[in-house]
Amino acid sequence: MKPFISGLRGLKLSAIASALVLALPAWAVDPFTLKDIRVEGLQRVEPGTVFASLPFRIGDQYNDDKGSTAIRTLFGLGLFSDVRLQINGDVLVVIVEERPSVADVSFSGIKEFDAEILKKALRDVGLAEGRPFDKALADRAEQELKRQYINRSMYAAQVVTTVTPGERNRVNLNFNVVEGELAKIKDIRIVGNKAFSESTLRDLFDLDTGGWMSWYTKADRYSRAKLNADLETLRSYYLSRGYLEFKVESTQVAISPDKRDMSVTINVSEGNRFVVSAITLEGEYLGKEQEFKSLVTMRAGEAYNAEDVNRTVKAFNDYFGAFGYAFAQVEASPVIDRTNNRVAFVLRAQPSRRVYVRRINVEGNNRTRDEIVRREFRQLESAWYDSDRIRLSRDRIDRLGFFTEVGIETEPVPGTNDQVDLTVTVAEKPTGNLSIGAGYSQADKLSFIASIKQDNVFGSGNYLGLDLNTSEYNRQFVLSTTNPYFTQDGISRTFDLYYKTTRPYDAQGGDYEIATPGVGVRFGVPFTENDTVFFGVGAERVKVTEGDQLPEAYRDQGGTYLPATIGWARDNRDSALVPTTGRYQRVNSEFGLGGDRRYAKLTYQFQQYIPISRQYTFAFNTELGVGKGLGGKPFPVLRNFYGGGLGSVRGFEQGTLGPTSAVIGSTTGETVNVGGARNIVFNAEFIAPFPGAGNDRTLRWFVFIDAGNVYGESESVDFGQMRSSVGIGLSWISPVGPLRFALANPVRKFAGDRIQKFQFQIGTSF
């Protein structure tokens, strides 16, 4: 028996040895010259992809090391699940087994997301139609889908992946999602606070426990990013009120077993409140210690304020940067006296080296031309580095309105110690607007409305706009184009071409028509970085076709108008849509010095926004206007001011304040409002977050007081004739644009006034 067993063992060993000998030609071979290379097993992958990845060609010497490199390279492509090499004489055969490719990706059960958004998320992890597939990739895709749902506070979401084989080694993937219920914050606790009440601190948070507006704000949906932002807000609140050693000890987030309710607990350590005892300067200050001392916003005897410290350090760095020291090091070192709760600061500065800008690079602009960004720069290449000019340049680029993000990075030039490169990184946003629609009203009947506006035509930085309205009674065609850099000095030029007609409504009867074709050109001259002066000239030919129901004031108003305009504007508001601080001023004058009408018209607008707190704002608006006929002629009616409605005195029908005119042919003594040559408007608003909307700035409510009136040229301004109203309103930055609703109650009105208590508009403030 033993000899049999021994023979069997010998047979097994012989078989193993034979197998090894058969396998050796792929690996243990003597170097030889390749006469041919063949590839087997390809279905979708092009042979050229394999040949291009091989570290050898026909006619090259082949050895074991090159074979190993070839296998590693082919596996590295991610296209194959198996790779083998066979050698037949002096011919190399590459045998591959392709991974299946993804033919289709589909979803079922999704309601929270659009399918295209999820496909993009999966594409970022490597799963997309046409790409190779493996099980690990499907697992990563599942985890990514769950992460997307967790970001929406849907912790109960479940994902099941189904892989269905298809033709030509392809697979179809279906992700079946059971979304489950939203997890909502039911409780937010702050533990360890003594100086401030828990309710005061919770009011600082964007996250909350929900209210009747939670469907809009979604503030009761937990988000780690939002919580981190709230913690930073909490930290800033304490640090700006003297609590130098404040810290968040821990944060616990708990979720209920059914994954519907969440609770957040924040443990804080307030520490003691510190008072600044002294501020001293150490280091090198370029012989300008007094100038630097004037930049210090901290004051001895006042409570410690981290914002003052940060502002001081930034001001020091900026001041060094204004002299070319881009890499100045400024450190505010606290010396803490815990016995007396005092803190002294030592401001240490080292200017390092002075540098100049070698090159300015622009990145991220796919549509906008480089020159559009470069021409806004006030920092020049080959000039000394100037932080003030760089910051101004960034603000100017941001104000173009072409980009969602603008960043400038300073990078040292390798091999030098006195040169830097500036890299401007922008993220473009859509700058065009196309709207086409039709409307019907009892007054205008059926009308077609179209508008095309492009703020950055062909990436040139120029504006082009076209407005068309085919209303039966108010038709208009307006073509406008602006070149913001008509000259290299930044003088802008705007062309306007328009044709407008006005006819009476059916309810009025009558058959008169007022047609106004015109053309105009305006130039904007930047006198400072914040001030722009506008000059313009135009020409209009007004034709009044008299008929029934024509207002008496419009008689003989036809003729040639040659207006010349000059204006000035300054805007330092923090936002044009939702301003909370800053001031806006505008002066515009128009003179009819030629043609058939001689007149002068002057308007002035002033807006001021005063932040009361993070959430509340006072806003004031004043508009004054005056017109005067020249050469002994009256002020033309078609240039009158109008009052009443949104943008003026709310609660009164739009454009109905001021003088009226009798209607020609009327047998009932009918009159029509035609405006006046003098205009006075005062508005005041108190703006607050909408109840239940938390700190959301897109939805706010306000209370207001309006006063104003319109007067004729021959009338004296009588404040006793002023109309006024009070009311409440709602401001909403909607997907279709800013909306404002107002419910007003006239508190000072007169007989004959046309009241309209509810009004709304799409537009900006006031």
How would you describe what is shown here?
With 766 residues, the protein is α+β, with helices and mostly antiparallel strands. Among the domains are: 1-25; 101-178, Roll (Ubiquitin-like (UB roll)); 184-269, Ubiquitin-like (UB roll) (Roll), CATH 3.10.20; 275-350, Ubiquitin-like (UB roll); 356-428, membrane protein fhac (Ubiquitin-like (UB roll)), CATH 3.10.20.310; 612-766, Beta Barrel (Porin), CATH 2.40.160. 17% of the residues lie in helices and 42% in strands. It contains twelve helices and 35 strands. A 16-stranded antiparallel sheet has the order 18-19-20-21-22-23-24-25-26-27-28-31-32-33-34-35, with no helix packed on it. A three-stranded mixed sheet has the order 2-5-4, with helices on one face.
Give the helix/strand layout.
Blueprint lengths: L1 H22 L8 E2 L2 E5 L6 H7 L7 E2 L1 H13 L3 E9 L2 E8 L2 E8 L6 H10 L10 H17 L6 E8 L4 E9 L5 E8 L6 H5 L11 H4 L6 H16 L7 E9 L5 E9 L5 E9 L5 H5 L12 H17 L6 E9 L4 E9 L5 E8 L6 H5 L12 H13 L3 E10 L6 E10 L3 E10 L3 E10 L8 E8 L3 E10 L8 E11 L10 E14 L4 E15 L13 E13 L10 E14 L3 E13 L5 E13 L30 E3 L8 E3 L4 E12 L9 E13 L11 E12 L2 E12 L9 E5 L4
Parallel strand pairs: 2-5, 6-8, 9-11, 12-14, 15-17
Antiparallel strand pairs: 1-3, 4-5, 7-8, 10-11, 13-14, 16-17, 18-19, 19-20, 20-21, 21-22, 22-23, 23-24, 24-25, 25-26, 26-27, 27-28, 28-31, 29-30, 31-32, 32-33, 33-34, 34-35
State the gist of this model.
This protein has about 775 residues and is of the alpha+beta class. Among the domains are: about 1-25; about 100-180, membrane protein fhac (Ubiquitin-like (UB roll)), CATH 3.10.20; about 185-270, Ubiquitin-like (UB roll) (Roll), CATH 3.10.20; about 275-350, Ubiquitin-like (UB roll) (Roll), CATH 3.10.20; about 355-430, membrane protein fhac (Ubiquitin-like (UB roll), Roll), CATH 3.10.20; about 610-765, Beta Barrel (Porin).
